[in-house]
Amino acid sequence: MRTAYDVETVRTAERALMARLPEGALMQRAAAGLAAACADLLGKVYGSRIALLVGSGDNGGDALYAGARLARRGAGVTALLLSPDRAHASGLAALRSAGGTVLGAEADASTGIVGRADLVVDGIVGIGGKGGLRPRAAQLATAAAASDGLTVAVDLPSGVDADTGTVHGEAVRADATVTFGAYKPGLLVDPARAHAGALRLIDIGLELPPGRAELTALQHDDVAALLPEPAGESDKYRRGVVGVVAGSARYPGAAVLAVAGALRGGAGAVRYVGPAAQAVLSRFPETLVSAGPPAGAGRVQAWVIGPGLGDDASGLADVLSADVPVLIDADGLRLADAKTVRARTAPTVMTPHAGEAAALLGVERGRVEAERLASVRELAERYAATVLLKGSTTLIAPPPGDGDSSPTRVNPTGTPWLATAGSGDVLSGLTGSLLAAGLAPADAAATGAYLHGLAARHAADGAPVSAQDVAAAIPAVWRDVRG
Ligand SMILES: NC(=O)C1=CN([C@@H]2O[C@H](COP(=O)(O)OP(=O)(O)OC[C@H]3O[C@@H](n4cnc5c(N)ncnc54)[C@H](OP(=O)(O)O)[C@@H]3O)[C@@H](O)[C@H]2O)[C@@H](O)CC1
Ligand SMILES: Nc1ncnc2c1ncn2[C@@H]1O[C@H](COP(=O)(O)OP(=O)(O)O)[C@@H](O)[C@H]1O
Ligand SMILES: [K+]
Questions:
Q1: ipTM at complex level
Q2: If you ran DSSP here, which 8-state letter would residue 422 be given?
């Protein structure tokens, strides 16, 4: 499990550790890790040109000490100070005595040092940053973006919000971020995540209480432990039956794709209810189709409702009144009424993309994309449901009161190739199937997103994929995860 902590929790752990260590020890650990990461990226330190962008806080101090270490190994290191009179004094002294050069930030305009550097180290601000970068700092971020060299962010790319992943205006775009003690939510959530590049976590000895994690990301082992597995005494009903209410005369394909996902999600059988039975059966003869309303379809352990429904709300009341987990996607999100969803006793999972989430919240789509974490939590609270917000970062928020052990999850798999019509239908079927197989709502959503993202990577392998390809790749990645 990868965990991220908010700034307040990191600061508390930092204070506790600092009280037990000699002064400056933590910064030395951070700088040693940073210098080693820079050396790895450069390949050859001796003779390389390094520009340090140095703010007036400890983030700048880390950059200065790391710069001193690299200068001692033969790099040509120049520090550009944003506030020369407030820069970290002992860091500056260390850099100078290692042979580094120190200039004011304005010197970049005349010297072009940042543009010519092999490596730019962004020590402008870290977890002490507030709001958008100030103008001079923003100029350095722009210069770094135009540089031929690599950019490494110290702790966080300067200009991104550590706790929320929002980005106000100009922010550094790093090829890699070397972060200390713990991941911060902003490193895992877009739009900030896109600024961070490859992540490297340096252990500086901080002790962080697992129960205080702000965000978690399942890894292979965690997902492997959650995957349903039939036992000797299993039969198709004991494995769970998932019911799919999807498709319309206009969108029969959505039904086929949701069933395609459901058939690969571990349930023992898939029931289909809706007007696209012919299309579903001709592609998947193993589906149990039913002509009447959901209530007459026979028992299921979970329902999926919504993909391609259009305006047909006729099955919704049956599904929402069923005492089994329900996943609501696509058109179902628009048709379901918040009060009815809130009143449900069995779990509800909702899977909007940013546009659908924006419509539910009554805000612009851009706001959801800029504030994903706040948006998904707000929806989970409003609907008292587990909400999976899709997009470049997929987030899963549990309903309020779901226990402290259940922070928001961020999905670590996926690829932009997934942005293809119908791939969301596959995800809803897959996740519904995992619900029917008995996974808890947040586990089903996180496992569904994980397998779906991995299947897309596997199927794409650098080329376009269709939603069907994603569904077809699920068994292969399931095997991979099981190891
Ligand atoms: N946690 C840990 O365990 C460890 C933490 N360590 C390191 O300490 C870092 C935190 O250091 P920190 O607290 O000194 O704050 P930091 O990020 O340097 O920023 C403050 C400075 O930025 C400025 N500033 C603020 N906003 C700005 C803006 N928008 N645009 C421009 N400037 C802005 C602000 O200016 P002021 O408001 O004072 O005028 C102030 O000068 C942390 O990220 C990590 O690298 C490691 O060394 C060891 C272990
Ligand atoms: N930029 C992106 N990067 C990674 N994944 C994306 C991106 N955009 C969309 N996705 C993923 O693609 C899928 C699209 O689902 P959705 O928007 O519901 O499409 P549809 O309704 O056509 O099925 C979701 O799993 C979503 O997380
Ligand atoms: K930084």
A1: 0.96
A2: T
**Alpha carbons 161 and 212: distance in angstroms, whole number:** 19
Convert the pLDDT of each residue in 294-313 to its tens digit. Answer: 999 999 999 999 999 999 99
Verify whether ligand 1 is closer than 6 Å to residue 122 (CB atom).
no
Give, using CA atoms, the residue closest to atom 16 of ligand 2.
424
Indicate the residue among 215, 236, 253 that finishes a domain.
Answer: 215
DSSP code for 171:
-
| Residue located nearest, by CA, to atom 40 of ligand 1 | 57
Residue in this structure with the two tokens 């009143």, named with its chain if needed: 343
Residue 411 Cα to ligand 2 middle (Å): 13
User: Where is the domain boundary, 177, 193, 215?
Assistant: 215
Q: Whose CA is nearest to atom 14 of ligand 2?
A: 424
CA of 220 to the centre of ligand 3 (A): 30
CA-to-CA distance for 382 and 372, rounded, in angstroms?
15
Ligand 1 mean position, distance from CA 456 (Å): 39
Environment class of residue 362 by beta-carbon count within 10 Å: exposed (0-12), middle (13-18) or buried (19+)? exposed
| pLDDT tens figures, 380-431 | 999 999 999 999 999 999 999 876 457 999 999 999 999 999 999 999 999 9
Residue span of the structural domain in which 38 resides: 2-215
Collapse the DSSP code of 201 into the 3-class scheme (helix H, G, I; strand E, B; otherwise coil) and give the result: strand
Please identify, by atom number, the ligand 1 atom nearest to the C-alpha of residue 56: 41
- Number of domains within the chain: 2
* CA 51 to ligand 2 center in whole angstroms: 39
Whether residues 183 and 211 share a domain: the answer is yes
Q: Residues 154, 34: contact at Cβ < 8 Å? A: yes
Check whether residue 10 and residue 106 sit in a common domain: yes
Shared-domain flag, residues 156 and 193? yes
CATH number for the domain harbouring residue 356: 3.40.1190.20
Q: Are 154 and 181 in contact (CB under 8 A)?
A: no
Residue 387 CB partners (closer than 8 Å, separation 6+): 349, 350, 351, 352, 357, 376, 379, 380, 396, 397
